């Protein structure tokens, strides 16, 4: 493999060389590249030969012993040496008139100071910036063989619920961006796609709790910006990772990059198969003046089988030293085969079994995402004056077929008519964005830009039913429909930042005009008008302040106004069909919610041993979303009351919280990373004459410890605790679960074998109690059982300890610091 890669890169440079080299006879440049600290060979380091004007003439890479030999025409050259994570070194004005052996080049590890505060621990790398925290999670052993959704659960301030729902500081309205932009990779606002994208594709995660005006105003909790891997160092390098797991799963991910002075080609491709069993339990007790007040118990078993393929390929062409254009194409294909068995027991008022029914849903889903992105950047100078333009078009096609069979087993066995449901969802999204940055003097900066985001999702919902068991399927005209949801957003923003001594600020204003529209075709209930077309213009000011007491201590303050827009499923008025008695139904009358948020933060470092971060935050939200459960007044054919879950706008939601993080490295072989988040929210509002106001206090914490038994043998454990919480109707119990991992480097550091167990004690279950006027519901839900993963990663032309996060501003990063 190494010889092949060497030949491939050598061919690339030979092609360039053939066009630039004169017809004069050739001579050799020879030498060796080593590490300055220990003299070890830097195999596959990159050597670039330039003429006195700085133009690339030819180049090559060192062999496994660090030696290189490059043919050039006689002349005077600059010879540049590069390797991942090391400082570049250039030998100037080398007179190469005959075969020449240059002095051994010693490269030093790149430990340059960053503009932001950088805190490094072997479980994570944290960068504290003016408006966000950046977590490089690539060193987390517990993410081997995991998905992006799993990896986000290891990021401080972020929680991932038992069913995959993502929350930031306990608030589920978090905006997910990929490389700084809305993306089909994130499923157009849904997090489902993140469950198929491998965690190995992530370079870093930006937790933006006080977004500046450059970012979307969407997401009252803030923004999670996922930056995908893309190498910036010259040469050919990459990695391949494979995994197997129990319950059965296996996959492979390849990440490769080829970069020269003129172009950069990058690709991440993965293929995986997974089975994910889960279970749920519901106990519903009904209270009314009727003679019969049944108790209904449902036991559900989920058997999910998923096949996923993802590839992200792109190329960056460097037009000149100041400008470049990048095009990339993302494809995601998924196929799910799921079986849900719902075993229902109904008991009479004497707790005697009245009947038993087994409802089985066989569901297949084909999910295809395609996205094309084009980026142009022009750096007018080296001081940050630049213009960037982005175009992005994405398509998300899903086709889902569900066959629902029902069987009564008590008091007599009877096969019931079946349901066949077909759902086709077609979504497309177009994004256009322009950003302009103009530095003013040494410390000030002005910025302005535009973003247009236009999204349409059409859901074609066909319900067919048998009149008698085994009979012909007939369309149910009352439920069959086509629902089209449009979201158009036009935004303009401007912001200005400056630094005066130890004080810096970034102030901005963003204007967004939102249009939300929904239309229904084919609805049998023609007496109900559910079409809507609403516009919501709004101004969204932002302010971020920073005061540096000294190099190791600072205060930050942030204010921003945010919006929470309802997604398609939340406004789709047609109920789910997985259960007859427990359904979810969207609300077409749902309006956006608006929030004002404040954040006061503090950071203190004690050398390289201890770092402490903390913040206090407050948020006031109007028209806040809340999911409630209510008795619909309707019954199943067997007389069971139908309970629905529906999202509504409540009047206000007031939230105040405190969070703290600690990075502690007491010994060279021990690293401890802990975080704690405490919050209280007070909700006020009523719906259909029922007061849903409530006050709730909750908290969650995370503790990670990593032990280096030897330089290449490591152990890590992550413990995550979520405290009990409640709203006006539902109390949810606490959850404690543990992840553990072992890692061993092999093949001289080029390979790593890892074993990790997620949810060691199989305790990640959501247990809740809901009480309303006419019913009481106990439930327990486990989205996925304990998993055991074994993985192997092989790196070529890079070593584990040399991998570093990129600082390229063109991959969705965000704002510079002042």
UniProtKB/TrEMBL annotation:
Outer membrane protein beta-barrel domain boundaries: 379-794
Location of region: Disordered: 799-818
Species of provenance: Winogradskyella litorisediminis
PANTHER family: PLUG DOMAIN-CONTAINING PROTEIN, TONB-DEPENDENT RECEPTOR-LIKE BETA-BARREL DOMAIN-CONTAINING PROTEIN
Pfam families: CarbopepD_reg_2 (PF13715), OMP_b-brl_3 (PF14905), Plug (PF07715)
Identification of the protein by name: Outer membrane beta-barrel protein
Cell compartment(s), UniProt: Cell outer membrane
SUPFAM superfamilies recorded: Carboxypeptidase regulatory domain-like, Porins
Keyword tags: Cell outer membrane, Membrane
Cited InterPro entries: Beta-barrel_TonB_sf, CarboxyPept-like_regulatory, OMP_b-brl_3, Plug_dom, Plug_dom_sf
Residue stretches of biased makeup (Basic and acidic residues): 799-810
All residue ranges annotated as the TonB-dependent receptor plug domain in the record: 143-223
Recorded superkingdom: Bacteria
Broad class of where this protein is predominantly found: membrane
UniProt signal peptide: none
């Amino acid at each position: 493999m190494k010889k092949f890669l060497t030949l491939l890169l050598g061919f690339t440079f030979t092609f360039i060389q053939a066009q630039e080299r004169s017809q004069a006879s050739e001579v050799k440049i020879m030498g060796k590249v080593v590490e300055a600290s220990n003299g070890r060979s830097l195999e596959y380091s990159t050597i670039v030969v330039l003429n006195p004007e700085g133009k690339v003439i030819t180049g090559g890479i060192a062999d496994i012993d660090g030696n290189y030999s490059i043919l050039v025409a006689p002349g005077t050259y600059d010879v540049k040496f590069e390797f991942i994570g090391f400082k570049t070194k250039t030998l100037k004005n080398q007179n190469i008139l005959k075969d020449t052996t240059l002095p051994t080049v010693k490269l030093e590890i790149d430990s340059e100071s960053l503009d932001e505060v950088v805190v490094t621990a072997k479980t994570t790398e944290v960068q504290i910036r003016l408006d966000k925290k950046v977590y490089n999670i690539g060193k987390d052993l517990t993410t081997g063989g995991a998905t992006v959704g799993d990896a986000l659960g290891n990021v401080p301030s972020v929680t991932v619920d038992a069913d995959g729902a993502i929350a930031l500081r306990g608030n589920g309205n978090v905006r997910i961006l990929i490389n700084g932009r809305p993306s089909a990779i994130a499923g157009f606002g849904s997090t489902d796609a993140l469950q198929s994208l491998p965690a190995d594709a992530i370079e870093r995660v930006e937790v933006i709790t006080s977004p500046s005006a450059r970012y979307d105003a969407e997401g009252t909790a803030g923004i999670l910006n996922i930056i995908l891997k893309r190498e910036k160092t010259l040469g050919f390098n990459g990695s391949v990772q494979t995994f197997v797991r129990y319950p059965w799963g296996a996959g492979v991910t390849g990440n490769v990059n080829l970069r020269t002075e003129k172009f950069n080609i990058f690709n991440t491709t993965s293929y995986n198969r997974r089975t994910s069993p889960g279970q749920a339990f519901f106990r519903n007790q009904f209270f009314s003046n009727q003679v019969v007040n049944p108790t209904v118990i449902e036991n559900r078993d989920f058997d999910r089988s998923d096949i996923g393929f993802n590839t992200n390929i792109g190329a960056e062409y460097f037009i000149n030293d100041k400008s470049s254009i990048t095009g990339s194409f993302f494809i995601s294909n998924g196929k799910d085969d799921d079986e849900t068995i719902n075993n229902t027991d109904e008991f009479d008022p004497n707790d005697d079994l009245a009947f038993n029914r087994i409802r089985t849903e066989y569901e297949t889903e084909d999910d295809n995402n395609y996205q094309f992105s084009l980026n142009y950047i022009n750096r007018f100078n080296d001081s940050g004056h630049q213009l960037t333009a982005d175009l992005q078009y994405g398509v998300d096609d899903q086709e889902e077929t569900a066959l629902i069979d029902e069987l009564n087993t008590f008091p007599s066995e009877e096969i019931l008519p079946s349901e066949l449901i077909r759902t086709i969802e077609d979504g497309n999204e177009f994004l256009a964005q322009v950003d302009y940055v103009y530095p003013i003097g040494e410390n000030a900066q002005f910025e302005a830009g535009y973003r247009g985001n236009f999204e349409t999702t059409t859901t074609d919902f066909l319900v067919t039913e048998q009149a008698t068991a085994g009979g012909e399927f007939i369309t149910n005209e009352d439920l069959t429909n086509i629902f089209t949801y449009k979201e158009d957003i036009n935004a303009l923003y401007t912001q200005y930042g400056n630094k005066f001594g130890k004080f810096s600020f970034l102030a901005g204003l963003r204007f967004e005009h939102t249009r939300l529209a929904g239309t229904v075709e084919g609805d049998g209930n023609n007496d109900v008008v559910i079409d809507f077309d609403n516009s919501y213009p709004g101004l969204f000011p932002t302010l971020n302040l920073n005061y540096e007491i000294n190099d190791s201590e600072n205060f930050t303050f942030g204010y921003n106004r945010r919006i929470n827009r309802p997604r398609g499923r939340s406004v789709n008025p047609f109920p789910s069909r997985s259960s007859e008695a427990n359904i979810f139904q969207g609300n077409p009358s749902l309006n956006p919610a608006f929030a004002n948020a404040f954040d006061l933060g503090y950071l203190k470092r004690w050398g390289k041993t201890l770092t402490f971060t903390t913040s206090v935050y407050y948020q006031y939200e109007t028209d806040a979303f809340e999911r409630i459960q209510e008795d619909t007044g309707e019954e199943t054919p067997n007389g069971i009351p139908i309970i629905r879950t529906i999202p509504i706008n409540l009047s206000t939601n007031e939230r105040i919280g405190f969070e703290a993080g600690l990075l502690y490295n007491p010994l060279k072989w021990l690293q401890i990373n802990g975080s704690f988040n405490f919050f209280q929210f007070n909700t006020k509002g009523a719906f259909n004459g029922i007061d849903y106001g409530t006050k709730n206090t909750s908290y969650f914490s995370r503790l990670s410890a990593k032990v280096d038994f030897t330089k290449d043998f490591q152990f890590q454990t992550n413990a995550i605790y979520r405290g009990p919480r409640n709203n006006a109707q539902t109390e949810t119990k606490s959850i404690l679960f543990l992840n553990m991992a072992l890692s061993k480097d092999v093949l001289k550091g080029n390979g790593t074998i890892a074993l990790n167990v997620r949810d060691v004690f199989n305790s990640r279950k959501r247990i809740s109690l809901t009480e309303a006027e006419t019913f009481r519901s106990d439930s327990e839900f486990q989205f996925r059982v304990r998993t055991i993963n074994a993985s192997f990663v092989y790196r070529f032309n890079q070593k584990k300890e040399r991998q570093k996060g990129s600082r390229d501003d063109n991959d969705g990063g965000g704002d510079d610091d002042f």
